[in-house]
């Protein structure tokens, strides 16, 4: 981004309800722009930092990026880890998007007057792309930035076990681990141990800390996901989680809402559904009862859960 045409210092922003990849790729990309391209930018966040991400930032010695709830018309913005406006900070429609670095489906929302830097690849994390940008430039991130980038990568790929993992990620992680001086597996265990929302019975946190909205066939749906080490406490909390999800769908008008509780040790999920049963009844997972599904081998919202829900909607012809 050395010949960045924007005259204003861009904000680098991850998606709403940021996860470790959204926060850490914003920090990492800002470091890349400064160190490699000599371009100043400001990483920001548009939501609360999840507990595990806070732990990761502490390991790296970074302060949380500044919280912003909207951007203004004409603000220069680089989107990281998303490109759908539904997942973006308020005011994005009127902002000046000068770059996108992402690993999600294209929504068609981003339209610009000028050509922009746009890198979207089907890899495991946006942090992998940030690391690769350093690598391609023959540069190395600092130890602190490397720790940050590892956090986003292992968080999104469950330490290279999620089906979203690619060879690209498998090459990047050891490269980063060496720079950071950490053992990736040990780091992953500590990262996921850092905050169990299920054990704490924090239902709001489970529903809100990693939840995405999607537009599909003109309907709005939502999928929340929580990563846990094992399914302990699931059965006793299930009723509360389901009640919370039902209320959320009613309040926000979602035609369907899912929450996936994913066990990172087996890469399997338990999925609770709310909303239109004629839709979620078509889900291709093992139906345990009216609203609960077992999904062995399912841990990726993007590659497994969202496509299954989109297919269920088509089958229900909504
Ligand atoms: Mn991501």
Order of helices and strands: EHEHEEEEHHHHHHEEHEEHEEH
Low-confidence stretches: 1-6
- Please name the CATH topology of the largest domain: inorganic pyrophosphatase (n-terminal core)
- Spatial strand arrangement across the major sheet: 3-2-1-4-5-6
DSSP summary: helix tally: 11
Please name the fourth-level CATH homologous superfamily of the largest domain: inorganic pyrophosphatase (n-terminal core)
Tell me about the largest β-sheet: 6 strands, parallel
Helical content (DSSP H or I, runs of 4+): 25-40%
Radius of gyration: 19 Å
Strand tally: 12
The total number of structural domains is: 2
Structural class: alpha/beta
CATH class of the largest domain: Alpha Beta
- Identify every distinct bound molecule in the structure, by name, code or SMILES: manganese (II) ion
Report the principal-axis shape. globular
**Beta-strand content bin:** 15-25%
How are the SSEs ordered, and which strands pair?
Blueprint: E1 11-13, H1 20-37, E2 42-45, H2 51-60, E3 66-67, E4 76-80, E5 96-102, E6 117-120, H3 126-136, H4 143-157, H5 167-180, H6 184-193, H7 197-200, H8 203-208, E7 211-216, E8 219-228, H9 234-252, E9 256-263, E10 268-275, H10 277-280, E11 286-287, E12 292-295, H11 301-315
Parallel strand pairs: 1-2, 1-4, 2-3, 4-5, 5-6, 8-9
Antiparallel strand pairs: 7-8, 9-10, 10-12, 11-12
Helix pairs in contact: 1-3, 1-4, 2-4, 3-4, 4-5, 4-6
The structure holds manganese (II) ion (MN).
Please characterize this protein's 3D structure.
With 318 residues, the protein is of the alpha/beta class. The chain folds into 2 domains: 11-193, inorganic pyrophosphatase (n-terminal core) (Alpha-Beta Complex), CATH 3.90.1640.10; 197-315, Diaminopimelate Epimerase, Chain A, domain 1, CATH 3.10.310.20. Helices cover 40% and strands 20% of the residues. It has 11 helices and 12 strands. Strands 3-2-1-4-5-6 form a 6-stranded parallel beta sheet. Helix 1 (20-37) packs antiparallel against helix 4 (143-157) and helix 4 (143-157) crosses helix 6. The chain is globular and about 55 Å long. The model is unreliable at 1-6 (pLDDT under 50). It binds manganese (II) ion. Manganese (II) ion (MN) binds at residues 21, 81, 103, 125-126, 156.
């Amino acid at each position: 981004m050395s010949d960045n045409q924007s005259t204003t210092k861009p904000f680098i922003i991850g998606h709403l309800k940021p996860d470790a990849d959204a926060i850490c790729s914003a920090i990492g990309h800002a470091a890349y722009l400064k160190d490699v391209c000599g371009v100043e930018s400001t990483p920001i966040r548009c939501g609360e930092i999840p507990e595990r991400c806070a732990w990761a930032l502490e390991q790296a010695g970074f302060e949380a990026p500044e919280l912003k709830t909207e951007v203004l018309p004409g603000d220069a913005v680089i989107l990281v880890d998303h490109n759908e406006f539904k997942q973006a900070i308020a005011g994005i429609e009127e902002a000046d998007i000068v770059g996108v670095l992402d690993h999600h489906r294209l929504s068609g929302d981003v339209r610009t007057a000028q050509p922009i830097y746009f890198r979207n690849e089907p890899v495991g994390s946006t942090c992998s792309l940030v690391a690769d940008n350093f690598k391609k430039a023959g540069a190395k991130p600092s130890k602190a930035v490397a720790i940050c980038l590892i956090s986003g990568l292992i968080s999104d790929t469950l330490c290279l076990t999620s089906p979203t993992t690619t060879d690209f990620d498998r090459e990047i992680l050891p490269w980063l681990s060496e720079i950071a001086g950490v053992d990736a597996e040990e780091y992953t265990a500590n990262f996921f141990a850092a905050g169990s929302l299920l054990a704490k019975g924090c239902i709001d946190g489970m529903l809100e800390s990693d939840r995405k909205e999607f537009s599909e066939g003109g309907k709005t749906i939502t999928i929340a996901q929580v990563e846990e080490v094992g399914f302990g406490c699931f059965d006793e909390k299930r009723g509360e989680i389901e009640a919370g999800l039902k209320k959320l769908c009613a309040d926000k008008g979602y035609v369907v809402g899912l929450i996936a509780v994913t066990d990172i040790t087996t890469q399997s999920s338990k999925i609770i559904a709310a909303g239109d049963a004629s839709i979620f009844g078509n889900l291709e997972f093992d139906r345990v009862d009216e609203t609960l599904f077992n999904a062995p081998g399912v841990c990726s919202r993007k590659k497994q859960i969202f496509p299954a829900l989109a297919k269920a909607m088509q089958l229900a012809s909504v």
